[in-house]
Amino acid sequence: MSELLQAVLDSEERSDLRQFFSEIRHQDKKYLLRNDILMSYVEYCNKYQKSAEFYSGSHLGKLIYYTQEIILENGNLCLIIRQKIASQEFYRITEDLMIEVLTIQELLDVRDRFVNRYHPNEGDILELDFGPFYDYTPTIRDPKNIGKGVQYLNRYLSSKLFQDPRQWLESMFNFLQVHQYDGIQLLINGRIKSHQQLSDQIKRAIAFVGDRPSEEPYENFKFDLQMMGFEPGWGNTAGRVQDTLSILDELIDSPDPQTLEAFISRIPMIFKIALVSSHGWFGQEGVLGRPDTGGQVVYILDQVKSLEKQLQEDTTLAGLDGMNVKPKVVILTRLIPNSDGTLCNQRLEKVYGTENAWILRVPLREFNPKLTQNWISRFELWPYLETFAIDAEKELLAELHGKPDLIIGNYSDGNLVAFLLSRRMKITQCNIAHALEKSKYLFSNLYWQDLEDKYHFSLQFTADLIAMNAANFVISSTYQEIVGTRDSVGQYESYKSFTMPDLYHVVSGVELFSPKFNVVPPGVNESYYFPYSRMEDRIQSDRERVEDLLFTLDDPVQAYGKLDDPSKRPIFSVARLDRIKNLTGLAECFGKSEALQEHCNLILIAGKLRVEESEDNEEKDEIVKLYSIIDQYNLHGKIRWLGVRLPKSASGEVYRVIADRHGIFVQPALFEAFGLTVLEAMISGLPTFATQFGGPLEIIQDKVNGFYINPTHLEETADKILDFVTKCEQNPNYWYEISTRGIDRVYSTYTWKIHTTRLLSLARIYGFWNFISKENREDLLRYLEALFYLIYRPRAQQLLEQHMHR
Ligand code: UDP
Ligand code: LCN
């Protein structure tokens, strides 16, 4: 039993526990989430005049802190306690404090009963359990190492592999033989016939290149190497070839995981990459701002540019330039015939600033042209994905002249397509979620049937389970995306167990300790976003135009609000007008603090100004709300609301112009999976205040290079900002200090260069281990296929029927 629970029971706090539970029993709420539990506890402590020491220092206080949920059932309480990251315990506690440990199955039944969806007489419900498939694969033990999968895998597998040197050499020899580019053999040829010979020839070749000037180009001695059994791929100069061969030589003689990683990272095995973002509305201009795009599009475009560059660099270093090797990256998305003036109806579009990166658009089959000719929300796309994958495969093969070496899925729908494609083509699959809806929408699984018409979560969560289990590796932007924090459940963690009443129970949905999870955060586009102080790279006329737009321009089409005093320090934010982005919360926070209004103006860039311009209900509500907050707090003269969506070049200048005026950036989202705007603001030099719920918690180090805010506590947030502003007024250096440290933080940790180097190294290493260990995942993949055909597909077809009648 939970040590904490036991400690409470064994101490005099036992009566407090009984009393507290009795208070809970008398509440109206029967399903309490963490926030409700904490609030009830505060009320309890106030009512019974408990000391501050008791509130947080007692066993009970700690127990409450770790209790994620309480469900009331027939006077009993079911507690879900998460005392450790990624691990939960379940208890039923009766009125007289009898305690029973619940199994996950029992807990899921409790939840079903709570929503009146428990029908034991009609037979058992389908249980999904991925646990057994992970029984034979290595798993990380310490939760703090979750997300460092590849390091762990390397250590684990190398120690196994190196135990049998003969076998190890044999495997390496086989691995070196398989690499080709467009049918041309790389690395070694048939002259090297065995692993013993490989080892001898490596030493010969090292001696041979060692006698040559280090800078001598590979082309000069390539035929000599070929005679010894070595094909292109080892390096572009004598020095580089010698280096690579020496690493391999060392690896053969005294293998260790670091040397192995260093060697595999040099192997030319990735030339063609496909990225899938199927729900689309994917383009380079005019596409941001639909409810479902935004960061995902920005992320992928920047990632692709950086990937292409990295692949080119790697190819050059490997000495393959002479072979006319041209890496290619393709973003696969849907073609949308009615594309609203964007290029989303164009089959192929080159990615700006690249040589060989493309957006490839494949249309959905025309089931009901009224729908399929148009943009379709990501929540409705499910019926089209299977046929999309079939059609896309042909197009991809044609476009890439063969199979990609790596396929990267984005978001739930793109990851499902990536699964289907990599299953058909047998290639390494990487998943990127950006955000998982399951934790974004409260009770989305428990009430899925009520939400189905609007959201189709039964399809989305099934797709998620399939894709995340199928992926060879998963990239997350943060640690907490996988397993949360001490007090909050991670996005992937929320798939560990859950009920979809009447559909299935998931008793083990994902192995969070699997080395497939790797934290690889994104970067920021450094040609658009750079520090305000780099005046030499800024264009004076752009700067003036942006200044005018932000502070003075009188144009009702673009801007609402005229500032009484445009010289006040600007508080700035930019986001889509989603409820969850909470720009209205920021306006209210500003409205509530007259002191803040005395010192600052509030500048918001929020896409639209008028309800008529929006097709999205959430957005419409937010527009109405923002106007009413401005009126309610009489913010006229103190706020500017810009209804524009700026091109990137201008948006970079916006942050810098705010920084010129020693302004600050606030990201007030109720939850933010990662938060690219936080990086953009910080690299521009803006002291940043960002939500403590989600990714920003890892990007920012509180009070060092930015600040956390709790966007649900408006007064507290206003005070934090005011405190900073007052400090800066007393000591202008303070602003510079935070600004500089923010810039440093981004350059040291969040660049695309770091991201892609890591990503490609992961792809190579997972590819290597798949080859070497012949990891047998066929049983898992068959199980996933069964899920796809037996659960996903019939539901997708049902939805398609509905679409046909629209
Ligand atoms: N963005 C923009 N114009 C806007 C709003 C947002 O260019 O009016 C960009 C913003 O600069 C950032 C991205 O869209 O690059 C939003 O990404 P983020 O991760 O902050 O949030 P998401 O929209 O993906 O939830
Ligand atoms: C989606 C989100 O919601 C953001 O938090 C991320 O920054 C963005 O995607 C890019 O990954």
Automatic annotation (TrEMBL):
Residue ranges of every copy of the Sucrose synthase first GT-B domain listed in the record: 259-551
Gene Ontology MF terms in the entry: sucrose synthase activity
EC number: 2.4.1.13
Taxonomy, superkingdom: Bacteria
Gene Ontology biological process terms from the UniProt entry: sucrose metabolic process
Family according to the record: Belongs to the glycosyltransferase 1 family.
Name listed for the protein in its UniProt record: Sucrose synthase
